Every structure is written in C-alpha cells, then in structure tokens.
Amino acid sequence: MAAPALLVFGLFALVPLAGVVLLSFTSWDGLGTPRWSGADNWMRAAGDPVTRNAVWLTVKLTVLSYLFQAPVSLLLGVYTASRSRHREALAVLYFLPLLFSSAAVALTFKGLLDPNFGLGAALNVPALTRDWLGDADLALGVVVFVIGWCFIPFHTLLYQAGVRQIPASLYESARIDGAGPLAQFTHITLPQLKYTFVTSSTLMLVGSLTYFDLIFVLTAGGPGDATRILPLDMYLTGFRSYDMGKASVVGVVLVAVGLALALGLNRMSGANRMESRQEGA
Amino acid sequence: MGPSRAGRTLTAASLALVVTTATGCGGFGGGSSSDGATAWALTGGSEEAFRASFNSWNEANPDREINVEWFANDAYKEKIRTAVGAGNAPTLVFNWSGGTLADYTEADQVVDLSGQVDGLTENVLPSVAANGETGDGLYAVPNNQTQPIVLYYNKKVLADAGVEPPETLDDMTDAVEALKGEGVVPIALAGQSVWPELMWIQYLTDRIGGPETFQRILDGEEGAWSDPAVMEAATAIADLVEAGAFGDSFGSVDADSGADTALLHTGKAGMLLQGSWVYPNMAEDAPEFVGDDLGHTTFPVVDGGSGSPSNIVGNPANFWSVSADASEEEQQTAIDYLNDQVYNEENVQSLLDLGSVPPVSGLEDEIAAQDDSEHLDFTYGMVRDAEHFQLSWDQALPPDQAQELLSNLSRLFLGEITPEEFGATMDQTL
Hints:
Chain B: This is Carbohydrate ABC transporter substrate-binding protein (CUT1 family). Chain B: InterPro entries: Bact_solute-bd_prot1, SBP. Chain B: Pfam families: SBP_bac_1. The complex is a heterodimer of chains A (281) and B (430). In chain A, 70% of the residues lie in helices and 1% in strands. Chain A has 13 helices and two strands, in the order H-E-E-H-H-H-H-H-H-H-H-H-H-H-H. Chain A has helices spanning 3-23, 40-47, 49-81, 87-99, 102-113, 119-123, 136-164, 168-176, 181-192, 194-207, 213-218, 230-239, 244-269, and strands at residues 26-27, 35-36. Chain A has a two-stranded antiparallel sheet with strand order 1-2. Chain B is built from 21 helices and 13 strands. In chain B, the strands form four sheets. In chain B, strands 7, 8, 9, 10, 11 and 13 form a six-stranded mixed β-sheet that branches. A three-stranded antiparallel β-sheet of chain B has the order 3-12-6, with helices on one face. A two-stranded parallel ribbon of chain B has the order 1-2. The longest helix of chain B has 20 residues, at 5-24. Chain B is globular and about 65 Å long. At the A-B interface, helix 1, strand 2 and helix 5 of A face helix 1, helix 3, helix 12 and helix 20 of B.
C-alpha cells in the first residue's frame, strides 16, 4: 500500500538529496562539469567566517522566534477557545496572516518600515522612523517579529483545537474542588496540551531552519551579514557566487540538523508512543 | 594526483543526476530542443525597444522567426546560468559582459563573432564595443542603451542651502555640511540594495588612482585591494558616512522600489549618484521636478588624483552573445538579426524615445531632434568623450569575488569594518 508514496518520496526527496551530498564533494560553478574535490568544500565551509556566522545566527533566530511565538500562540489559543464575546471576530482577524504569501508580507513590512516614506513618516511618529532594516542591531529583531506575525496564527489554531478537545467534565470537577481559573489552567489545560505543544514546537523549531522567502525579500541577508541565516547563506553561495559545492555542504548540514531536531523532540517528549493523556480513555 | 576511479564514478553519477533534473524542468524552448532561434530578454528598462526590434525581424523573416521569452532581472540571472551549463541556453544569450562572459567563453558556451557582425560593430563607440572582446575574439555585442553613472542633484534644495554642484571632493564635503544645516539628507543612497554603494568606491578609486588600479585587481595581483588609491577611496567613504553625508538611515533605502530617487524629487535629499537609467523613471514619477529642478553633472575630481576627470563608470551597455549549443542554422539567424536590427535606424529611434542613449557614434543630430534632448545630450557626451569607461565592478569580477565585494562594501558603509580591514579581507579573494 505504501509503495506508490515511497516511490514518489524516493524520486523527489531522496534522489535529489543524494545528489546534493555528492555535489558537496565536488567543485562546480554551474557551468561545465563538476570536478571531484574531496572534503575541500567541507573544510572551506567550516573555516568560513560568513558560514560560521550563519550557523550562529540560525541558532539565535530559532531561539528568539521560539521564545516569541510559543507563549503568544499558547495564550491566544487558550483565549480564542474560550467562550468570551468578540471571539469569533477576533479569531477571523488572527487567521488572516495565514492566507498571505510570505513575499507579499515581506514587501508590505519593508514599505511600512521605510524610514523616509513608511508608517513613521506618514503618521509623524519619530519612534517608528528608525533605521529598522538598515541597522545591524535592529534588523534581526524585525525579522523575528515579522516571522512571528506570519506564523503565530497557525500555532494559535493548533492550540485552540487542542483546548477545545479537553472534556468540560475535567473543569467542572476542578471547580467543585475549588480551583480558580489560574489553577485550572496550570493543572488541566497545560498538561492536556502536552502533545499539541510537542507538535507545535517541532514545527516551530524545524521550520525556523527553513525560513527563507520572507527574509530574502525583507533584507536579503543584510545589512552586512546581520540576517544571513543558513538557508540564505546556502542560496547566496549557490546562486549568487555560483559556488555550488559549498552551497551543497550547507544544504546537507541543514537536512541533518532538521532531521536530528525533529527526531530528538519526538523521542524526548514520548510523543512517538502517543498514549492518551486521559486516564481510562 | 588525478581523481580516483570511485571519485570519477561519483562525479559522473551526480552530474547525470544534475543534468537530468536540469533538463527535466528545462522544457522552456531552450536552444537545443526547439525549432528555430530563441532569445531570452529582460523586462523593464529598454524592454519596448527590444520588443519593437524582434517584432520587426519576425515580420520581415516569417520563415526564420526568433521566439522571445521575457524575464525579470534577478530571475533571469539565476536561470540563465543553469540553462547555459546544461546546454539548454537560448540562441541569443543576454549578458553584462565582464566576469560572467569570461566564464561562458572559458567553458566554450558562446561562439566567436569576429568578422561576422561588422554591420553592427562599425557604428558602436569603441569604449563600449571593447567590453565584448575577451582575449582572443569577439564574444558579445552591445544591444541597448549605454548606462553611465551620473551625479544628479535637486537644484532647488542646493540653492536653498546656498551651494553649487560640487566640482571637487572638498566641495562635496562642504555641500554636505550646508545641506545638513538645512535638515535634508545631503546625498540619497540606497544602502539596502548595496550595489549603489559600488558607484562611490568605483568613481573615487578611478579619480584617485585611474583605471589601472582596478585593472590590477582584475589581473589578480597580490595586495591589489590594499592599493593606496583603493585605501584613500575607502577612507573618503568612511569620512562621508561619518559626516552624515548619506543621512542616518541609508541602510533602509531600497533602490528597486525607487526610494532613493523619491528622496531626491520630493526635496528630502540634495544629491544622488545613480545610473542614467533612473532618468526615465523620474520623468514619469515627477515630470515637473525633472522639467524645472533636476540637475546633472559629472562626478567631482579629487585633488592630487591621477585619474582623468572624463573617466566614467557604469554599464557600457548590455550585450548579446550567441550560444554555442544552438544549431548552425539558429546561430546564423541570430547573427543576421544582430546585423539587421541592433542599432539600425528604427532601433536607435525607439531607444531615444525611451529617454536613453544607444552607444552609437555620430548621433548628435538625432539627439538634438528629440523633445527632451538635454539629458540625452549630456549622457551621450559623457560616454562619447570618456577617456575610459569602467564596467561596474560587480559585473567585471568573477561572481564569487563580486559577492564578497558587495558584502564587505556594505559593512564598510555601515562602519562595521575599517578601510584597512576592507582591503585586507578583499585581498584574500584575489
């Protein structure tokens, strides 16, 4: 039964992946024939300050994005799952960013943040007319914010679905036992959301290894190398400097780290056993 | 030590893989698989002139039509390389001469046109035609307008600050102070796009040390990036940034969206160093400003510098090369097209109507006949009288070095590295 799916996966994922691994041991500029160069690309990538900086930036961006997205998504998810008024209207608003393309979002923010013709200049708010994308210290923060703006709605949706599946009887018995809203949240909602949390975190962490289009349009890795994370480093090395060998090295590293991260998270959380979080259910 | 047998097998396997994937998604009417000659051209810029010229050819030669596809600049640059590498190039390969053309000729991907396109080259200004010659033959011919870098200024803003257009670097420094006092950005600069920053280091290096300085870099001479002329140019840039010449948010200004020209025509900036291709855009966005207040001049001289004040930098033109993968018949069609259509009377006129100047000798009368001849006349004179026309460095250098240059230049402008560090880092790329 799984044969057709495996075949497609092999043809379109594993075969090209093997190609990239092979390319990482050759020297090729996109023209002519790849030349076998052994571990030369790996040595060069390991010693290249730009690529090293990209590794560090990727870690930084992953951590910062996670710290920004996870709590906000959790709280919004719990809030939109509750039965308060205006929830429906707000929920619609929250999910709008899910429908936009990354490139369009990046272009819009680029325009809004323009210090001379953007939001700050239009509304005469000096606090907004900073050199958002041109200052190496601010650019990464802006990128984290815009990524969060794009992806928080999706994770909110996950948490909302998770919260709605928690049986009301659990909350009723907690109330009878005299638990307040905060105690209900920490003793019922959070534990019941464990698997949602694992799923959402895996998507967030592995996803942050693949952020590309948004940053490419927003800053193209600049100013200087301030937002040149690994996927951008791979692209710019391959398709601007035409150093396909070194770009393939970065590609292989990204695949390895992504796989390790996803497997590690699964193993750590015990989500692969997928036992129910409810006694007797 | 040659590659091991296993190594060769692996290489062959990966190459086969790459080629199959490349050709697998390469059914775009590439040269090798289609009937008849093809061309890929760029949208924007002189697109209309290209369209008119291909239409004329196709009407006159219904049995030898050239099939044209249109691409945006960045998309084209990424696609063409893979296509050329996979033997899937269009018959007419659009390029920028320089480092990429050198790569093509080295890999024998384009044909030598020596003696076959005299109908075209005899009219072209020599400083422009020279860019298509590499080593031992003629591999590219110019195909559109010439694009020198011009110092534009807002007459009204400069007059309000009581300054004249700068003729020396010292004048420029004084003008910066006066304009700052008026609360405007002295010089607009699209730092986010980075390539406009190249124009500064190119002109300053040329004015200080002449074109020989960059030639040494091209030749790969050791320590050529730390040459005193480059160092002086980089220091002048650091000083200008320090003095606030480009304002305090040039890193957020984007050239592709025209933010730098908008600063100039809205009176928020006094000067702008940009390619002559921005003129048609400004004429469209701000016709009144272009009519009354737009001034243009050559780049200031530097006291004690050895470069000729007539020297210019920019893109002499864009170029056509003919793909070596195309059949004899397709190559002949392409060569006939070059001789018949490029810079013929109709093509020259459609370029002039776009507000741009083809690099063809003896155009003075045609230019004078245009409605808006002043800017045309100025840019044409610049190119005609230039002792040396330096191709933009990012085009002239091999792609990997060009990327290093852009990234380090950006850091120099941001103040992240000193001129000495800039020179030392770039020396390692030679």
